[in-house]
């Protein structure tokens, strides 16, 4: 089987600033692929291009063998691509469970009018969604906060809610943007275990971070510097690579 | 359609266009300096024209006094709007919508107050040069309309100079573009917003006294003026004084053409449709860059 | 699914209060004057129209000032359909809802891509367009002269001809719509709406079709506004363009804001205020429109949750037991 995600020769400029210069890499199915790079390397821009928040100036994003460069965010999500945000974007006024139910919105089939008149199929669907949400809540140890508005949780737990919500959709590719920022050491440990467990269940993950510790869960790492991939390989190889060391340490 | 009729309608459109432009100018000033859409802008004009009428016609005092006090009344109202409505809303972290709703409420309060004291009648203020006319290609134009165009242009130039050259103008811009940065520079951001609202009020009052000899002063006139002024302002990019006048002229001309080609009854339909179309197709106006489309 | 004792107690109380409210509601007209019942009928009509505005604002963040237009379409559809075309009453009502919904969809698809004050002003422009059209399309609306002789609604030989009788028609409609909107709010769609209000970017990632959902709710709101307008036409039996001016759009928005846009039953409180307050304030003279405008300002600044928000936060405090702390561990 080919790649889940192919980034093909993507370049992007904001006004006069060239942020990405011909970036290409693949995400293999079943892998945890990492994307590292110092601040300002273009990681977030690339991430926004992959998830559909930006259209690249040049180049293509191929997801599951289909060119998705021009497709919207929601369309990519329906195709099986989920992302999280650098600052966790939970639905603040919704309870943790409702957050998860919202997460699998696209799996539902009932419309506005059916919901308005409270038809039985709407209730059935809602009960199914709740049940699924409860399963995932258990998996992510969020049980005690099930009925609490997500906005009231501390940042670390909001991140878990966001992750759980993304998993609700059973994505084919889960893209995480700096998932460890703002987490304590133990929380990072939990996050890494969670990611490894998800991966063991068959989920492909793309991880963008500058946190080298978190990168220990990856099987493949690409290093981005000033808009270019300067090295690719295992984390160990990255640590040895003089170019990466130079980019990170400036020596 | 005869040439004279065409010229006549173009002149009417031009005059109305400057009226809308002046309202739009006030909206642009307030949006530029406070990031708020002031739905009271047309009602500030109403206040200006009512005060001018009271002084010049009811009390029989000199016209120039009525004119000046009308402008001042607009400025004072702008100041009060900030203190009584905008500031408390900002303190409670109001959303974009709450600012709009609050000023809409203010617009109704003004309109209802005018209704209470003036009733449903409409009034006309004598213009500069009385009712004298000049000939333009066989078509007639009020001398006052020419003054309106001259003064509006003067105000736009003055505002340009004010924002570009004076310290306070620069501080007002800084306070709206980057409030936190402005604070660190020692700029009193709250006070700058008050100044902005007062400046918008002055422009609104001026619009009122200039408009009153051309259209009927009537308690309901504010809201429609606001909307047309808003259309003018967004055509011009929402923050540009020159753009607002330009947008107003375009709107006025389109309306005038609608009057001669369709019917006068549908003038407002054409204007409002144009407003909606502009917002959708050109949210950043004719020259602007700011996009406002969102999910 | 387990239900905590707290939730159970809160539910029991909700039912008890609802039941008591219904008893009071049913008994009320027997003790009131015709004039007062008339006000309550209008409160019912405005509750229906206000529900649409309130739900749009509270759940989708859309400030709609266009509701007076749809209210008017409903009224004229009912009036023209029954008097000029001789259609049965339900056909006129449904035709109004369909036309309103279709117009809302046609307009909503481009306009609802706008946000914030752009959207609010676009809907205000729509209300003005509607008002001018009601005035100008005289063959349809009768212009300023209006349309008279609109038949009363009759069911099984019972004619809803007096305020007393109409009271028992309009309020059940309002209650049913409150129930429907509550169902919608707690459905998958309702959760999606609240999600996109909280975090639009994340909602898009969750696959929530934001614009299409907004258009649907806008269409629904228009149809509901049209229903209120049709009922109004059949109640007063004479309508003219004055009933569908911009101040009506403002009243509907005020109902939503005062009632609390996050609270569906709160709309009733907003509608009662908007219909009853002018009546009592008018004793103070013509100052009441000013007080009205001031009420809007004060409500937006000091009571952002409206009456409904105020009541529900108090209610939560009274019924909720201790909940696990947000920061502590399990």
Notable characteristics:
heterotrimer, A: about 250 residues, alpha/beta, Rossmann fold, six-stranded mixed beta sheet, four-stranded antiparallel beta sheet, 10 strands, B: about 300 residues, mainly alpha, two-stranded antiparallel ribbon, 2 strands, globular, disordered C terminus, ABC_transp_permease (chain C), membrane (chain C), LivM-like (chain C), transmembrane helix (chain C), cell membrane (chain C)
Distance N to C terminus of chain C = 20 Å
Helix-strand topology string of chain B: HHHHEEHHHHHHH
Gross morphology of chain C? globular
The coarse silhouette of chain B is globular
Computed CA radius of gyration of chain B, to the nearest angstrom: 19 Å
What is the SS-derived class of chain C? mainly alpha
The counted number of beta strands of chain C is 2
Give the termini separation of chain B.
Answer: 45 Å
C-alpha Rg of chain C (nearest Å): 20 Å
Low-confidence stretches of chain C: 324-330
Helix vs. strand class of chain B? mainly alpha
Q: Give the integer mean of the pLDDT values of chain B.
A: 86
Q: What would you call the quaternary organization? A: heterotrimer
Order of helices and strands of chain C: HHHHHHEEHHHHHHHH
How much of the polypeptide of chain B forms β-strand, as a percent range?
under 5%
Strand content of chain C: under 5%
What topology, given as strand order, has the largest sheet of chain C? 1-2
Largest sheet of chain B: 2 strands, antiparallel
Relative helix content of chain C: over 70%
What is the spatial order of strands in the main beta sheet of chain B? Answer: 1-2
Number of helices of chain B: 11
The gist of it:
The complex is a heterotrimer of chains A (251), B (295) and C (330). Chain A is of the alpha/beta class.
3D structure, described in words:
The complex is a heterotrimer of chains A (251), B (295) and C (330). Chain A is an alpha/beta fold and 251 residues long. Helices cover 37% and strands 24% of the residues of chain A. In chain A, α3 packs across α5 and α5 crosses α6. Chain A is globular and about 60 Å long. Chain B is mostly helical and 295 residues long. Chain B has a domain at 26-221. Chain B contains 11 helices and 2 strands, in the order ααααββααααααα. Chain B has helices at residues 3-34, 41-58, 63-91, 96-118, 143-165, 167-177, 179-184, 189-211, 221-235, 241-261, 267-281; strands at 133-136, 139-142. Chain B has a two-stranded antiparallel ribbon with strand order 1-2. The longest helix of chain B is centred in the N-terminal third of the chain and has 32 residues, at 3-34. Chain C is mainly α and 330 residues long. Chain C is built from 14 helices and 2 strands. Chain C has helices at residues 5-27, 34-60, 67-83, 89-111, 116-136, 138-141, 163-185, 188-198, 200-205, 210-236, 246-259, 266-281, 288-302, 306-319, and strands at residues 154-155, 158-159. In chain C, strands 1-2 form a two-stranded antiparallel ribbon. The longest helix of chain C has 27 residues, at 34-60.
């Amino acid at each position: 089987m080919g790649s889940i995600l192919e980034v093909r020769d993507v370049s992007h400029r904001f006004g006069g600033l060239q942020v990405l210069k011909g970036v290409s890499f693949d995400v293999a199915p079943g892998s945890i692929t990492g994307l590292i790079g110092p601040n300002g390397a273009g990681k977030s821009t690339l991430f926004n291009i992959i998830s559909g928040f930006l259209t690249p100036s040049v180049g293509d994003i191929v997801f599951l063998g289909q060119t998705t460069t021009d497709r919207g965010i929601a369309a990519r999500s329906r195709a099986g691509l989920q992302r999280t945000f650098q600052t966790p974007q939970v639905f603040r006024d919704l309870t943790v469970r409702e957050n998860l139910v919202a997460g699998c919105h696209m799996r539902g089939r009932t419309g506005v009018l059916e919901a308005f008149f409270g038809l039985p199929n709407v209730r059935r669907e809602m009960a199914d969604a709740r049940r699924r949400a409860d399963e995932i809540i258990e998996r992510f140890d969020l049980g005690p906060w099930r009925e609490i508005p997500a906005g009231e949780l501390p940042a670390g737990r909001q991140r878990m809610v966001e992750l759980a919500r993304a998993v609700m959709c059973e994505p084919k590719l889960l893209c995480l943007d700096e998932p460890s920022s703002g987490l304590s050491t133990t929380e990072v440990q939990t996050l890494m275990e969670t990611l490894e467990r998800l991966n063991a269940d068959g989920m492909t993950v793309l991880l963008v971070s500058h946190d080298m510790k978190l990168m220990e869960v990856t099987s493949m790492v690409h290093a981005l510097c000033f808009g270019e991939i300067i090295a690719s390989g295992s984390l160990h190889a990255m640590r040895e690579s003089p170019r990466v060391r130079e980019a990170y340490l400036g020596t | 359609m005869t040439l004279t009729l065409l010229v006549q309608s173009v002149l009417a459109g031009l005059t109305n266009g400057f009226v809308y432009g002046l309202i739009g100018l006030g909206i642009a000033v307030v949006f530029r300096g406070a990031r708020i859409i002031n739905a009271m802008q047309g009602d500030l004009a109403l206040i200006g024209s009512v005060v001018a009428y009271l002084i010049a016609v009811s009390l029989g005092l000199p016209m120039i006094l009525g004119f000046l006090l009308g402008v001042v009344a607009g400025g004072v109202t702008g100041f009060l709007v900030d203190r009584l409505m905008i500031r408390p809303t900002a303190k409670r972290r109001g959303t974009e919508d709450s600012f709009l709703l609050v000023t809409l409420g203010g617009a109704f309060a003004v309109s209802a107050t005018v209704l209470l004291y003036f009733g449903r009648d409409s009034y006309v203020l004598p213009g500069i040069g009385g009712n004298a006319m000049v000939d333009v290609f066989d078509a007639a134009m009020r001398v006052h309309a020419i003054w309106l165009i001259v003064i509006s242009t003067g105000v736009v130039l003055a505002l340009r100079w004010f924002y570009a050259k004076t310290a306070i103008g620069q501080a007002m811009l800084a306070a709206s573009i980057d409030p936190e940065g402005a604070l660190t520079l020692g700029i009193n951001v709250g006070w700058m917003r008050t100044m902005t609202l007062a400046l918008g009020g002055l422009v609104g009052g001026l619009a009122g006294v200039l408009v009153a000899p051309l259209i009927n002063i009537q308690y309901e006139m504010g809201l429609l003026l606001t909307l047309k002024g808003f259309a003018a302002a967004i055509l011009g990019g929402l923050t540009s004084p020159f753009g607002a006048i330009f947008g107003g002229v375009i709107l006025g001309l389109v309306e005038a053409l609608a009057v001669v080609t369709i019917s006068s009854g549908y003038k407002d339909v054409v204007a409002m449709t144009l407003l909606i179309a502009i917002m959708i197709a050109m949210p950043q106006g004719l020259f602007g860059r700011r996009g406002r489309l969102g999910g | 699914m387990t239900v905590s004792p707290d939730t159970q107690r809160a539910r029991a109380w909700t039912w008890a209060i609802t039941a008591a409210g219904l008893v009071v509601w049913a008994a009320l007209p027997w003790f009131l004057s015709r004039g007062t019942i008339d006000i309550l009928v209008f409160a019912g009509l405005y509750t229906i129209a206000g529900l649409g505005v309130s739900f749009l604002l509270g759940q989708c963040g859309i400030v709609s000032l266009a509701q007076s237009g749809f209210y008017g379409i409903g009224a004229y559809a009912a009036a023209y359909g029954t008097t000029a075309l001789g259609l049965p009453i339900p056909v006129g009502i449904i035709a109004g809802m369909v036309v309103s919904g279709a117009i809302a969809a046609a307009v909503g698809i481009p306009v609802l891509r706008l946000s914030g004050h752009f959207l609010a002003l676009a809907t205000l422009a729509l209300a003005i367009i509607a008002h001018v059209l009601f005035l100008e399309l005289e063959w349809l609306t009768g212009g300023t002269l209006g349309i008279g002789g609109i038949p009363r609604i009759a069911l099984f030989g019972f004619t809803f001809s007096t305020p007393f009788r109409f009271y028992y028609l309009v309020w059940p409609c309002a209650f049913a719509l409150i129930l429907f909107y509550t169902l919608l709010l707690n459905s998958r769609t309702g959760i999606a709406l609240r999600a996109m209000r909280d975090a639009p970017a994340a909602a898009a990632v969750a696959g929530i079709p934001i614009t299409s959902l907004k258009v649907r709710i806008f269409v629904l709101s228009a149809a509901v506004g049209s229903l209120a307008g049709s009922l109004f036409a059949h109640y007063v039996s004479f309508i003219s363009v004055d009933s569908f001016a911009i101040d009506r759009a403002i009243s509907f928005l005020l109902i939503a804001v005062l009632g609390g846009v996050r609270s569906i039953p709160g709309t009733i409180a907003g509608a009662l205020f908007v219909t009853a307050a002018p009546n009592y304030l008018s004793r103070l003279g013509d100052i009441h429109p000013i007080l009205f405008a001031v009420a809007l300002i004060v409500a937006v600044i000091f009571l952002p949750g409206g009456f409904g928000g105020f009541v529900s936060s108090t209610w939560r405090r009274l019924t909720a037991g201790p909940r696990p702390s947000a920061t502590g561990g399990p």
